[in-house]
Design a protein that fits this description.
Length: 169
């Protein structure tokens, strides 16, 4: 008895991404927790994984196609692991080593050239070191890291698993 077919698994991964974004929007609008630059990057990464998984589910390609979708998912999830790890690391710093806080993102967009804006988005600021919420000892970025590791493992399993040959693929 092998793994289920890839199509429903990719759709389940899409639904997971939709749930994560729904949770992030609840934290922002329901609980009033404003996202920092690294949080926004993590949201973009989750949305990207969700779009890739939805496309894989709708497209329902053959074996090579699923491997391509899985490869892209692994690449994006790996990026998410790096970004979430950076934020977890920032949150673990002693207060005297935390970088300075930055102005809100809309001000940064107006002030900075795009190269500098990308650097700020991917390296984070003092805002990213603030722990606003925890569950079972993990902050929001900690749970994001767990999610990205899960997506990465899913993608690697999909990338390397043996699939039965389809008659018309």
């Amino acid at each position: 008895m092998g793994l289920p077919q890839s199509r429903p698994l990719f759709f389940l991964a899409f639904l997971t991404c939709a749930g994560l974004i729904g949770g992030a929007l609840f934290f922002q609008h329901g609980l009033g927790l404003e996202p920092c630059p690294l949080c926004i990057v993590q949201r973009i990464i989750v949305i990207t994984i969700g779009v890739i998984c939805l496309l894989a589910s709708i497209h329902n390609p053959g074996n090579v196609g699923y491997r391509i979708y899985a490869g892209f998912t692994a690449l994006i999830a790996g990026t998410g692991i790096g970004v979430a790890s950076r934020q977890v690391w920032l949150q673990s710093l002693p207060p005297d080593q935390v970088p300075e806080c930055a102005p809100p993102l809309d001000v940064l967009v107006d002030m900075l050239p795009w190269q500098e804006l990308l650097r700020v988005l991917f390296t984070g600021t003092g805002d990213c070191a603030e722990v606003q919420w925890t569950f079972l000892g993990l902050s929001i970025p900690g749970w994001s890291l767990v999610s990205f590791i899960g997506f990465f493992c899913f993608a690697m399993i999909e990338l390397f698993r043996q699939r039965p040959k389809r008659m018309f693929s």
